[in-house]
Amino acid sequence: MKVSDIMTRDVRVANPDESLQDAAKVMATLDAGALPVSEDDHLVGMITDRDIAVRGIAKGIGPDAKIRDVMTKEVKYCFDDQDIDEVTRNMGEIQVRRLPVVNRKKRLVGILSLGDVAFEKGGKGTAQTLSRISRPGGQHSQTG
Fold first, then answer.
1. What is the DSSP letter of 14?
2. CA end-to-end span of the chain, whole Å?
3. Sign of CA dihedral 86, 88, 94, 96
4. What is the pLDDT of residues 28-77, one digit of tens each?
5. In this structure, are residues 126 and 118 in contact, taking their beta carbons and an 8 Å threshold?
6. Is 14 left (phi over 0), alpha (psi -120 to 50) or beta?
7. pTM surpassing 0.90?
8. Angle at which helices 114-121 and 126-133 cross, to 10°
9. How far apart are the C-alpha atoms of 68 and 52, rounded to whole Å?
10. For residue range 82-94, what is the model confidence (pLDDT) as tens digits?
């Protein structure tokens, strides 16, 4: 099974010059925790609810600040023609719950979440991936 078989295709994309409040409103409307950030048709980052809270609010950055001020600029992604099992193993290794999906021309074509995988595969392999994502000591650890 390929990523393109189960990814979410209709993805709302944020602009790096939009405000954190704009991003938070979109996330609330979509009930999503992350948005890809695109500029001039290129994926330039990801903004998550955690970025807004930890890199923004916790540091005194207000709701009018720009997404570019707190977004994650090093974007991990997968290709739409990759095998889903390979990608879920990678998600566990790099400890992420969602990845932007690009085509071989590196244009954003969707997003893949652990929820997409769980829904499609009936949970098969999802628990193992989640246990890797949730292990202590990663980039977002609260234990260190």
1. B
2. 38
3. positive
4. 999 999 999 999 888 999 999 999 999 999 999 999 999 999 999 999 99
5. yes
6. beta
7. no
8. 160
9. 11
10. 999 999 999 989 8
